[in-house]
Amino acid sequence: MLRDTPRRAPGHRFIGRLASIFAAGLFLMPTGCKFTMPMDRYLLNSPPVPGPLSSGWTPPLNVTRPPGSEADDSGVKPVSYRTSTPETPSPIPDPLPPLSSVERVTPVDFDVVMRRTFENNGDVLVARERVRESESALAAAVRSHIPQGMRKDTFKKPVAEATVWHRRAELRKVENEKLLDAANTYFDWLAAKRGESVARDLIQLDEKLLGRARKLVELGERPAQVMVESAETALEGHRQALTNAHRLGQSAATKLALLMGLHGGTIGTTDKLSPTDRVEASGELEEMVHRSQSTGPGVLELQGLIASIQQGIEHARFAQRLCAMSEASRVCGYSLVHAPLTCGRLQMAQSELQQARLALNELQGKLRAGVEEAHASILSGREQIVHAAATIKHAVETYRLMDLRLSMENPDAWARNHTYNGVLTAIQQVSQAQVQFLKAVAEYEKTQARLLLFLGTYSEPPIHAR
Asked: Which of 68, 461, 69, 72 is nearest to 288 (CA)?
């Protein structure tokens, strides 16, 4: 049957649907103005450069003081662990050495450990690639001319920029955790190596005492057999301590090599475990707290996320008007078609903004607590090290005097004056004093490294690491 009315072209229905989708996608876009975000410009080989913001919160990726800025006169002088320019890694991995070759030994110290962990740790590299992925999505979102409503969420400017800041915050968290783990492992390794040396020295003292007791047994002094057994007991205990210290040292070295991204070979060092002031902790506590809450790990990234979400909400003026119209329409008994989705997205953005603010407050509170605890531990650690060193001095002198008496007295006087037992006791005191000293120094060094990280003392990362 023929129709009197003309037939519509097949493409008209599709064009009509496309126009409705296009209109729905513009609900969260500003009308009549350019859509600008905190990171308005983007370079291929560098992090996005923040654009103008009324809040002024959005920082660049690097967390060091920009060149040409005023010098810090706060009195807080953290020492950076980056002392040399890192080498650009070769895209071609090192070939595996033949089995007959000499095992490669990589010399390290504290600065090398921190730098290599920062650059080559596997988890850090994965987090860094996630940042690159999100920055690529942001670059595409900035350059694309497709309307925002017709894009996937990944390539919408507000979503892409918020994702960049999320990934950067995750990267800083991973970096801080791995650097702290590497520092603690490094000092555990030094403590184990020092523990081996102390155990060997104590073994020599035990063997010297055991040799004297055995000579008495050979001369027919039967009561001296008790002295032999006592010396054997002390000797076996120190041999066990030596074996345990060697095991702990090997475990720490293996873990440290993994954290540094070294695959194959071993690490070596000429460093000795000794108290080192890597952070000037004698300044005002509040100045250090302020510094950590301003440039500590993750602070600038959360501030950038807050600014990004806040600016996106401020630009969604049409969505705010639509929500207001929707509220009024419900009073009048009718509803707008796209209002629920638009208002839901706006409310989600406001919730994300509140979450970011709460996370920033929580982080700054943790940084304050961490700095205060580290500051108190450093001051207390200095006193503990002084006392432990004095304890070692007195214990060594006690052993010297008792050993001198043992060499001058005859076996009868040994039994009468308990000289032999006094020498054993003196060796035990030396052992205990050395252990306490190593614990105090290791904890002091770990606290120094922890405070260094709390203060956000990062050097400029290499170009390939951004």
From this structure: 72
User: What pLDDT score does 67 carry?
Assistant: 39
Q: How far is residue 208's CA from residue 427's CA, in Å, rounded to a whole number?
A: 11
**Which of 188, 201, 191 minimizes the C-alpha distance to 254?**
188
Strands 266-268 and 105-107: parallel
Question: Angle at Cα 86 formed by Cα 83 and Cα 89, nearest 5°?
Answer: 160
User: At 76, is the pLDDT very low, low, confident or very high (cuts 50, 70, 90)?
Assistant: very low
Contacts of 92 (CB under 8 A, 6+ apart): none
- Phi and psi torsions of 93, nearest 5°: -70, 155
Query: What are the pLDDT digits (tens) for 310-324?
Result: 887 877 766 666 676
Taking the C-alpha atoms of residue 323 and residue 174, their distance in angstroms, rounded to an integer, is 40
pLDDT, residue 163, reads: 92
Question: What one-letter code names the amino acid at 422?
Answer: G
Are the C-beta atoms of residues 307 and 297 closer than 8 Å to each other? no
Cβ atoms of 27 and 323 within 8 Å: the answer is no
Provide the whole-model pTM.
0.73
How far apart (Å, rounded) are the C-alpha atoms in residues 169 and 355? 14
> Tokens at residue 466, please?
């951004």
Q: Does domain 111-269+296-459 have CATH number 1.25.40.10?
A: no
Both tokens of residue 216? 């008495």
Place of tokens 């952070």: 279
Q: Tell me, what amino acid is at 128?
A: R
> What does the pLDDT read at residue 49?
42
The first and second tokens of residue 257, run together, are: 């090599």
DSSP SS3 for 103 = coil
- The residues that bridge with 107 in the sheet, in sequence order, are 268
What distance lies between CA 412 and its chain's CA centroid? Answer: 62
- 170 contacts: CB under 8 Å, gap ≥ 6: 127, 130
- Percent of the chain as helix, strand, coil, to the nearest 5: 65, 5, 30
CA distance 436 to 441: 9
Distances (CA, A) of 35 to 54, 145, 311: 15, 12, 10
Q: What is the pLDDT of residue 329?
A: 56
Region 384-413: mean pLDDT is 90
